[in-house]
Structures are given as structure tokens and as C-alpha cells.
Design goal:
TIM Barrel
């Protein structure tokens, strides 16, 4: 099988350096708002400047550089202990494979386009189950992640329904999201049963909770509290994956939006190091939107240009 390979260069090394330098300046002089007292204490302990009244954290450049280096080293060393590997740039995790081209499925759509009625309607648990079954038949799909969020089950436990359905029906590596604090221990128990033991489950890091940043250089209490609860149960957490919206939660210029997103990603490296254990930081990207109707544009040329950059 032949493999298509290409190299795309959007920014020069000088431009990359300018963006990185500006990101470090943002973190050092403006900082981030971290709305969680335990995280503030963790950050203070490793040398960040913390104002507990405003919840603003400022990150010295040396601290950011040191944390980034350790996080990349950690990513490069995970393949010997886990069933998946971490991209050394974004630190996102993927199931290991020798195939030249693979896919995983992650969408989290609350609606679907019904093939039979040609109508757009709320997704159901049956839709979710059928997406798992279809995924089993796709050879290049090595990891099943949620395509839809079912709306016909109680929202306070919808994530538990999703994990139970995927673990029961999928023949692939199953990953997913946890939305509700109360379901965390139950989802962990389901995964332990599927893995065969708690030791295997924790070693494989099947659950890596994505503690997403809220944009505008901030991290909200709920996501951070979820992260600590999952961390305290021995599971992995990935801080970051910023997804700022250019012109809304990030600067409207592409260079400005990319700089802000990079600053948030670098800040996530420091948060991961501050908490310790199975914690990773991750870079993310930027999306843009249509000001006329507020719709986010995930497939726009500008969005893909930013991700390539």
C-alpha cells in the first residue's frame, strides 16, 4: 500500500518565533484566570505568580519553558507503558498502530441527519449504538469515540449510558468524555470490568479527561473540579486543547488568535506539571465564525489554515 506524504509550511521560523515570544509575554504580563483554589495553590507551589483575590495567575517564562520541556519528554516516553501514544506537539493521545492511515471518531453531535426521513432530529441512544456497530465494520477506524450525544436519556447520566453502550458493543478501543461528576466512579468501574482489572485499565489510560480551557485565557471551576476528581481516582487528565473563536473569545486576526491559543496551550503545560501524576498539557487551535448568524465554522479555509500553522 502506498502512502501519500507531504510537508506543508504556513509560517516561517521567524514568524513562529514571534508568535511563541508573544505568547510567553501574554502569560507573564497578563496571565490567565484560573477559577479553582486547589489549582491556584498547585501553581503557586511551582513558582507561578498567583493572586487569590482575582484568581489571576502569571507564568514566568522560565517556568513555562521548563514545564513544556518536561511535558514533551513525558509524551515521548509514554509508548512503553500505555496502549496508545501521545503526539509530542499536541500531547493528544492515539491508539497505537502500524497501519499507514487510521481514523478515530469524535464528534459529540446532539443532532443527526436521519437517512430515512431526511430530517434533522435529536440524537438517541439507539443512534449511538448503531454508530458503534458501524464503527466495528470500518477497517481503518481503530478507536471509537462518541459521534453523538443521546438526548433520550437523563442528561445527568448520559455519559454513563454512552460508555456502557460503547463498551458493550464496540470491538475497537473505546474512548469518550465524562460530563457529570456523579458518574465518574461508575464509568471507571465499567472500564475496569471491560479491561479485566484495575491495573490494566490504569496502565492503558483508557480515560484521559480533557480539561478544556474556556477561551479568553481562562479555566472554569467545573472543568477543573472534574479534572481533580478524576486525577484523585488515579486516572489521567489532559489540560488545555484551547479552541478559541477568532473575533469572539480570541482576537479577530488570525495571527492574534493563534498567539492567544498558543499561550493557553503553554499555560496548560504548567497546569499539568503543577498537579503532577498522570497529567498532560495540550496545544489546541482556533476556529472562526460567521458574524451574521453566530455559526462556528469548523470547515472554513481560515480555520484549517490556523490548524496547519
Amino acid at each position: 500500500m502506498s502512502t501519500l506524504k507531504c510537508e506543508v509550511s504556513i509560517l516561517s521560523q521567524e514568524e513562529v518565533g514571534k508568535i511563541h515570544s508573544a505568547s510567553l509575554k501574554i502569560l507573564e504580563e497578563i496571565g490567565m484566570k484560573i477559577e479553582h483554589e486547589r489549582m491556584l495553590k498547585c501553581l503557586q507551589e511551582i513558582g507561578a505568580g498567583v493572586d487569590f483575590n482575582t484568581m489571576i495567575v502569571r507564568f514566568p517564562r522560565k517556568l513555562v519553558d521548563d514545564c513544556m520541556k518536561r511535558q514533551v519528554e513525558l509524551a515521548n516516553g509514554t509508548t512503553d507503558r500505555a496502549e496508545h501514544w501521545a503526539d509530542p506537539l499536541t500531547l493528544n493521545t492515539y491508539k497505537r498502530t502500524d497501519k499507514p492511515m487510521t481514523l478515530n471518531s469524535h464528534m459529540f453531535s446532539i443532532s443527526i441527519s436521519d437517512t430515512w426521513t431526511e430530517a434533522i432530529r435529536p440524537a438517541t441512544l439507539r443512534d449511538y449504538e448503531e454508530s458503534v456497530i458501524v464503527g466495528n465494520e470500518l477497517e481503518n477506524l481503530i478507536e471509537y469515540g462518541p459521534l453523538v450525544i443521546p438526548g433520550d436519556v437523563p442528561q445527568s447520566v448520559n455519559d454513563a449510558y454512552m460508555w456502557a453502550t460503547a463498551l458493550k458493543h464496540s470491538t475497537k478501543w473505546v474512548s469518550g468524555q465524562i460530563f457529570n461528576m456523579d458518574t465518574i466512579p461508575y464509568i471507571k468501574e465499567m472500564c475496569i470490568v471491560a479491561a479485566g482489572s484495575e491495573e490494566v485499565f490504569l496502565k492503558n489510560e483508557q480515560i484521559v479527561y480533557p480539561c478544556l480551557l474556556e477561551g479568553s485565557l481562562s479555566a472554569a471551576w467545573y472543568s477543573l473540579e472534574m479534572a481533580f476528581r478524576i486525577h484523585d481516582l488515579g486516572m489521567a487528565v489532559r489540560f488545555g486543547v484551547p479552541m478559541g473563536i477568532a473575533g469572539y473569545s480570541s482576537p479577530i486576526t488570525l495571527a492574534g488568535a493563534l498567539t492567544a491559543a498558543n499561550a493557553e496551550g503553554l499555560g496548560s503545560y504548567v497546569m499539568a506539571e503543577a498537579v503532577g501524576g498522570k497529567c498532560y498539557g495540550a496545544l489546541g487551535g482556533v476556529i472562526n465564525y460567521n458574524p451574521a448568524n453566530g455559526a462556528t465554522l469548523y470547515a472554513s479555509p481560515e480555520k484549517n489554515l490556523l490548524y496547519f500553522a
